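Re: beginner question about structure tokens

> Can someone show what the tokenized structure looks like for a real chain? I only ever see the sequence side.

Sure, here's an example I had lying around. Input first:
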Amino acid sequence: MRCRHPNGSSLPEAGNLHHQTAVRLDLANRRRLPLASRFNHEHPSGPMAAKGPDRDRPPGRRVGVSRRHSSPCHTMKPSIRIRLSVMMFLEYVIWASWYVTMGRYLENVLNFSKEQIGLVYNTTAVAAIISPIFVGMVADRFFSTEKVLCAAHLLGGAFALLLTRVETFGVFYAVLLAHTLCYMPTLALTNSISFHQMKDPSKEFPSIRVLGTISWIVTVWGIGQLAQTDALKEFDVRTPAPFAIAGVASILLAFYSLTLPHTPPKAKGQKVSLWDVLGLDALRMLREPSFAVFILSAFLICIPLSFYFSLAPICFGDLGLPNATGATSYGQMSEIFFMLVMPWFFARLGVKWMLGVGMLSWGLRYLLFLLGYESGAFWPLYVGIVLHGICYDFFFVTAYIYTDQKAPEAMRAKAQGFIALVTLGLGMLAGTTLSGKVSGWYSFPAVTPEKSKPVADASAWVPGNYVMWRADGETRFGALEALPETNAGETARVRVYVPAGDRGYEPGEEVLEVPLNALEKPLPRWDSIWKIAAYGALAVLMLFVAVFREPKAKTAEPAAPTADATTT
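And the corresponding structure tokens:
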């Protein structure tokens, strides 16, 4: 489902991480960016030069362009704006409620291994690859968008509620994948409903889409704050409540969708191929060396990038960061700030160094997390979280702009779908899978922990958790086999682990009764994990800076400056 941008190009609607679609639209008014002079529509001889009545109009008065290419929809009424804002807010409550907290829940309660946690997180990447197929092949051609949205959220909500009752890895993975397969297409569907009501999406959509970012902040912060109360202590990571919140919000949005403005299928009666839906026509752009280097670097940087989404919340909890769940919302707050100042940076850095600064920021944030682990201080963790605005906006937003710049007019939508497939699909899939393996390599029983975390509440333990304790001046390790029936019980039964060859530990024959108040949680070697992520990001940065060449813009016959053009 696509809407037409005022410049005449088709607007992509691939799924995203938090707000990629808003990013594209918010920056699509190219005359406000220093890169604008490189786009065809600002060159009189370019393929998007004005035609017809506007051809002889003075450059500063080509107002007919946006009217001619805008949606036939009427100007949005305040009541429609409110309804779309509510829709967007609920849309991101669903995702935000479980995505940040899930890792700690899987580790602490369901006792999933690090590798299994990484695999569970790749469900969103798998769904991001498949969802464009559903949207392009089915939703765009046969059904009204609001009805498809209702069905997807109704089914997705049922799967989210089912997750509250699932405890085994195989079933959990399958049910969460089913939920994400229902949810990810709705990111494009909600955008399509919004576009259909807008005369100028580049100006009207950001004010609607920002409700999604606000929703993410409010949801994550709110869940984190509730978990700090005595009555709901750690319900965010000790109970499946976040999935219940997602399920209820999804079902509410399903019924609310039926009240949304009617949005007919855009491609009804048209032939659509899988090749077109995935944007694979853009493969021909790889013939240009600079774009090929960009695509390769974009894929590679998403591998270390994924470590943040799947591992950072677990790390923050392990290190005792206050309100670890809510603290991650500072990253979304910084996204809003850096989005506002991006034009200023574009004017001074250009595409290559905007992408370079984004990659560098990913490496720096992981080094900050490493410093937080080694020093025990919280400030490096907070700074690393706040860097999210630069990490995300400078890389992803610039990637969308550069892709739009390089693609021929008729291929821009497909090119945007292709970069989303490479980064948010394939890159994230590889990254989340690798992050689980790396964290497994550097966690007990694969390595000897160098730090531990006291567990004050005995009810936090579950059978299967790894533990460590000190007895007779010796540090020992094991796994819980049984806990007392009440918190008042004094001891737990622990299977002792013994060294296994050159590296790691394995279950031994000895079983001990160990006092609960002596048990501690052995922490992963977060220093090694974050080093790998940081070095990976910095290696991609060096490759990109060394090989990428930003083509010079063709400026033989520059257009006269328009009245609202930004000059540098």
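Each token stands for a local structural state, so reading them left to right follows the chain. The domain at 20-58+60-443+530-547 is CATH 1.20.1250.20 (Growth Hormone; Chain: A;).
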